[in-house]
Amino acid sequence: MQTSLLYAQLHSAAASDGTLNIVGDGRKAINWTVPAEGGFGLASPITFSGGASFGAVYSVTLWNAETDGDMLGEILLSNGDLTFNGNGEYQVTAIDFALVASDV
Fold first, then answer.
1. Does a structural domain hold residue 103?
2. At residue 36, what are phi and psi to the nearest 5 degrees?
3. What is the pLDDT, as a whole number, of residue 68?
4. Domain range enclosing 58
5. Could you please report the per-residue DSSP string of 9-49?
6. pLDDT value at position 64?
7. Which residues make beta-bridge pairs with 18?
8. SS3 assignment, position 3
9. Cys-Cys crosslink for 96: which of 9, 15, 29, 41, Cβ 3.0 to 4.6 Å?
10. What is the Cα gyration radius of the chain?
11. What is the separation of C-alpha 15 from the centre of its chain, rounded to a whole number of angstroms?
């Protein structure tokens, strides 16, 4: 799973298939931690620019390619500031995945 989640993109409202409500300067590469103890997360923040000054940020989508490709998921942003700063910059500081398996 981790090896397919290569790029992130911001959206100002629901992304639908990933092509709606795109904000910022495009997809950014993701650096993940080494999976450990049943999960993995961002190894470093993802910084976006090119957004409207104080413009809304709603979600981040995860992709397998820098352009085109497949959207593999949308994560609603719920903690912290949900707007670009005055310079049109936004930073995603955490995306965490817990990997759990069960035979139930």
1. no
2. -155, 150
3. 95
4. 2-98
5. EEESS--TTTTSSEEEEEEEE--BPPPBTTEEEBSS-EEE-
6. 98
7. none
8. helix
9. 41
10. 14
11. 12
Residue 80 domain-assigned? yes
Read off the tokens for 22: 């795109």
> Of the candidates 91, 18, 99, 80, which has an alpha carbon nearest to the alpha carbon of residue 51?
91
- If one counts every other C-beta atom within 10 angstroms of the C-beta of residue 11, the result is 23
Tell me if 104 is assigned to some domain. Answer: no
Token digits for 29?
């590469």
Contact call for residues 64 and 4 (beta carbons, < 8 A) = yes
Cα distance between residue 95 and residue 92, in whole Å:
8
How many independent structural domains does the chain possess? 1
**φ and ψ at 4, to 5 degrees?**
-95, -20
**Which pLDDT score is estimated for 99?**
82
